[in-house]
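[Meeting: bench + compute handoff]

Bench side (C.D.) handed over the final construct sequence. Compute side (W.E.) agreed to return the predicted structure before the next meeting so the bench team could plan truncations. Sequence as handed over:
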Amino acid sequence: MDQRTAKEILSCRRDDLGASCIRAALWVASKPYALAMRLRRWGYRRGVLASHDAPVPVISVGNLTAGGTGKTPMVAWIVRHLTEAGRKPAIVMRGYRAGKAAPYAAPRSDEAELLAQLTGCPVIVEPDRLAGARRAADGGCDVVILDDGFQHRRLRRQLDIVLIDAVEPLGFGHCLPRGLLREPPGALADADAVVITHADEVTPERLTELRRKLAALCNPSATIAQAAHKPVAVIDDAGRLHPPTDLTERAVLAFCGLGSPEHFFESLARLRANVVAAKALDDHADYSPAILAELSDQARAAGAEIMVTTQKDHVRLAHLAVPAGARIWQLAVEMDVTAGRDELLGRIIGSASRR
């Protein structure tokens, strides 16, 4: 089952008998998982399960749901501001499909390689995040950004930031596998800050209602901020930067392999690109010459002048030869914190100095 079909079933957009039976079975399977996650978090809260300090302050960026919420641009935003404040940050991450890596070795996952390109700071790919934080400190870094760390309770952190997608905020209301929640929403009580991403893609009424729900779930002292993914440039096939408006009215084939591909397509629509064809692959798609050839054929048949993808996707396909005549451009985006910025930034800078 592909990612799009799965979401249609989980969200109840498909309401036929077969989809209903699948949802019922997944609902049953989600109950023991949700219980296990509640017990796990309770164990860490009570000290039944051991957590450990790193030699340097740790700032965690994570989410409550499976799929893309914008962790990569958020981590890059934090690193940029910490660097401007005189800190020496390093990023520690599990790394999708990544094996163990030597200290400061070339990253082995798409997120790691992209973050290395965007930030220029050390990126340590290490399944044992505590060991990764220690290696960061040994390498001279004075603060660690833990990528995708909300569920990784073994490593203590000075600040816990959770990202919530405004469009699909609570994973269709159920834990995996019935919904997209990695753990029940009550886990947000451990968050020090919540950032509602893609806040510009929903109505003010929906945003107000979401903020109300999150305030009820979070600790009263938690910061609730809002952010948008801001297109800042288009990178052509020769690596040259163009303003995002260069896509306006240009015939493009858009493609990506993300957890939430609709956000990418929405960004192109807002830039008024003429998307003559769109292709959503599964998250972390394994690009191959055959896939690129198929995309190139679709672009040619649809009359697309260029193909446009995300920076993360481009990292995954950069090692492949582009079919003759095909042009692949990247849309570069940055996190733009539009509400609660000063409070969030103050907590980030303050936490980087606190043990």
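W.E. noted at the follow-up: Confidence is low (pLDDT under 50) at residues 98-107. C.D. will use this when planning the next construct.
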